[in-house]
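Practice problem 4.
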């Protein structure tokens, strides 16, 4: 009996160890590290992008806040302008009222001045009548009386001037009667 040596099939030593994952393979480890580096780089890029957006957003918010502040200032200025316009309108109304009052006063003063001038003219005519009567020019007196009657001067003569003085309207009536008696 010859014993032949038993031949066992040769199996590599790694065959006895159970394989737990594909990453345990010697060729796969660099790929995992590479993927992790890529994930870390992507995460860092995302964080950088987030911070850049935050900074950009804060700048935009600052600009918006400046715009809001500017708009509030413009609104305040517009309110001031509206108040000034209302005040101007009020002042213009007041000015118009004062101008109307001044016009009325001026018209009254002008009417009074015209009345005074007419009264002065009537008194002047009375004076001329007296002078002509004193000079015994009765025909001239009659002309003056007719002229005074046409212009309405006798009604403009003062009726009361004080004590001891004959009022001008009375004096006119006396002279008129005296002239009619002489003609």
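Answer key:
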């Amino acid at each position: 009996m010859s014993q032949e040596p038993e031949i066992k099939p040769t199996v590599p030593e790694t065959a006895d160890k159970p394989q737990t994952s594909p990453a345990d393979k010697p060729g796969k480890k660099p790929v995992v590290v590479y993927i992790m580096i890529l994930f870390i780089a992507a995460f860092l890029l995302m964080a950088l992008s987030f911070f850049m957006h935050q900074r950009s957003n804060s700048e935009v918010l600052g600009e918006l806040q400046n715009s809001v502040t500017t708009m509030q200032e413009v609104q305040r200025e517009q309110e001031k302008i509206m108040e000034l316009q209302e005040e101007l309108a009020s002042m213009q109304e007041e000015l118009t009222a004062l101008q109307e009052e001044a016009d009325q006063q001026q018209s009254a003063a002008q009417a009074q001045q015209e009345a005074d001038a007419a009264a002065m003219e009537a008194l002047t005519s009375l004076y001329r009548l007296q002078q002509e009567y004193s000079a015994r020019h009765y025909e001239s007196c009659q002309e003056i009386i007719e002229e005074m009657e046409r212009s309405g001067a006798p009604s403009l003569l003062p009726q009361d001037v004080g004590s001891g003085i004959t009022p001008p309207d009375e004096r006119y009536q006396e002279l008129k009667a005296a002239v009619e008696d002489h003609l």
